[in-house]
Amino acid sequence: MQTVIIGLGAIGRMIVERLAGDGTAVRLAAVVVRPERAAQARQELAPDIAVYTSAKEVVAARPDMVVECAGQAALRQYGETLLGAGLDLMVVATGALADGAYRERLMAAAEAGKARLHVPAGATAGLDGLGALKAGGLDKVTYISTKPSQAWKGTPAEHAFDLDGLSEKTVIFEGRAEAAALDYPRNANLAATIAMAGAGFDKTYVRLVADPGAVINSGRIEAEGEFGHMTMEMRGQPMASNPKTSAVTALSLIYALNKETSRFVI
Question: How far apart are alpha carbons 202 and 221 in whole angstroms?
């Protein structure tokens, strides 16, 4: 499967490293970066990996899958064009889909291009359980994301709290999934993923927590439905180069890509 990834940040680099020589049917054909980063990317990547700087180049290459791992702005820049051109797109920055109008435009583009929009689990688990409970009727889902205090720097929490001075766990946000996903675009994309997989945005509530004593990122899902209840917690190591993101996010993309090529799917 010929694959192109958008972005060469922490997640993109891990995908490049993990796919290199892993013996699977997934082949990384190209990486998309901003024009000013193209020369550096060509120096860093293997000669058989192309470097693109535009959606036009991606469309011309006709890969089997494009993977966005560069944030909500990149998804908005490339998403509609790629889907409309008939290219399947796997996205990490699912928080952008909390914007209902944009979500509708993406799906319209996918319908026009007969393409598919793929949402991997990211740094969580239990989406299959949420889907099963959803089929029977979900009443409420709560998602609690806890990260080290420094992981919340560069977010609205930095203006409302003294993140360096926290001495105990502190709730920095509590509210609906849309607000969490859109107001914390680099930290809370999972709020949108969980809402879409489960009870929807109207019944999904989010609590974001800064923990000065934490050394890992943790996400907890609590779901209540007509046919059962679910509690699930994922505790993942943050990426050294980007503590806002768990390494499991990149690994989930690799898992999802490999599943697309497998004859045996779980």
Answer: 16
* Cα–Cα distance, 230 to 133 (Å, whole number): 9
Overall domain count for the chain: 2
6 and 113 fall within a common domain: yes
Cβ–Cβ under 8 Å, residues 151 and 243: yes
Predicted confidence (pLDDT) per residue in 208-233, tens digit = 999 999 999 999 999 999 999 999 99
Strands 65-68 and 2-6: parallel
Residue 266 has a pLDDT of 86
Q: Is 215 exposed, middle or buried (0-12, 13-18, 19+ CB in 10 A)?
A: exposed
Is the same domain home to 202 and 235?
yes
What's the CA gap between 190 and 204, in Å, rounded?
11
Whether residue 49 is found in the same domain as residue 146: no
As a whole-number percent, the residues of the chain with pLDDT over 70 amount to 99
Specify whether 86 is located in the same domain as 154. no
Which 3 state secondary structure label does DSSP give 87?
A: coil
Distance of CA 119 to the CA centre of its chain: 8
Per residue in 240-263, pLDDT (tens digit) is: 888 888 999 999 999 999 999 999
Longest dimension (CA), the chain: 55
Number of Cβ within 10 Å of residue 17's Cβ equals 11
- How many percent of the chain have pLDDT more than 90? 93
